[in-house]
Amino acid sequence: MSPRGVFITFEGVDGAGKTTQIRNAREWFEARGFEVVMTCEPGGTPLGAELRRLVQNGPDDIDPRTEALLYAADRAYHVATVVRPALARGAVVLGDRYIDSSLAYQGAARSLGVDEIAAMSAWATEGLSPCTTFLLDLPPEVGAGRRTDAPDRMERESADFHERVRREYLRLADAEPDRIVVIDAVGTREEVFSEIRGVLVERFADSAPVSGAPSGSGGGPAPAQPSDPERGAPAPVRDGADDSPDQAPASRGIPEPERGAPVSDQTSDADRSASAQEDGTGDEAAPVRDGVDHGSRGGKPVGDRSPAPGKAPSAPAPLLGEAQGALWEL
Q1: CA pair distance 52, 63, nearest whole angstrom
Q2: Of 51, 152, 161, 255, which shows the fewest CB atoms inside 10 Å?
Q3: Coil, helix or strand for 181?
Q4: CA distances from 257 to 26, 38, 76, 190, 217 (A)
Q5: Does residue 168 come out as left (phi exceeding 0), alpha (psi in the -120 to 50 range) or beta?
Q6: Nearest CA among 278, 270, 328, 298 for reference residue 20
């Protein structure tokens, strides 16, 4: 059964502020009568929370392949039990990390191969891809400076490791400009969300909540207000690859992803606390059941797209049905 809702993901290096911006986006959709499911990877389910603990705070000798497989297992279960059911009932699913994270962290930074990780992730999710991904871009050192708690196993990686993650994110954005919107995350929370809001209005203001889907506030769908240019609901999820033939990912041998929609908050309290570290905002940044926050620069990529001096840009990797996701949440 094809998804009916809207699936939106937020990506970026640790400390980019994804949690804060997801809360803002959630409020934007709920004000328009949508049911919103805010979730994260890893940690969006009880099983995911345990896998997150093992991967991010487990022994330092976890090898890259084991790490990648654990994230894939979490994603498969998360999509089957949280994301797809929410999309099927017409909800908006806002995900903190998805396949793009795996491509950037395990595929590129861990040198496991972006193609290999993309194929494994497509298999684990049965080709489910978000219709829109906000990439909150900022230098890794800036994100590290926002940290308030002790760094986990991933955050303790070298500066070069995190720079490779950022470069791969930007490469993915260049390869999929229609799906991935790059946002300059160096600005204030208000500035960042102002840009994200502009993209939400452009892409989802003319949509309406699926009939019968409960609104995030518990009432019925809020009627659209023509006088308000921002009123509206997310566009329905697209089933399969992009509508345009030249976007088909068949040539890469990876199943074409379905376009989905965000779901209500499934994040545990422990995960919310962990997410706050990424935003550098403490408790205020932790995911909560009634908030989301993110911004975009008019949908145009920002930030330095050039590889580090002396390094040639990496070759385009197979895009998971033209859509990737991420695994970590901070």
Answers
A1: 15
A2: 161
A3: strand
A4: 24, 21, 14, 32, 30
A5: alpha
A6: 278
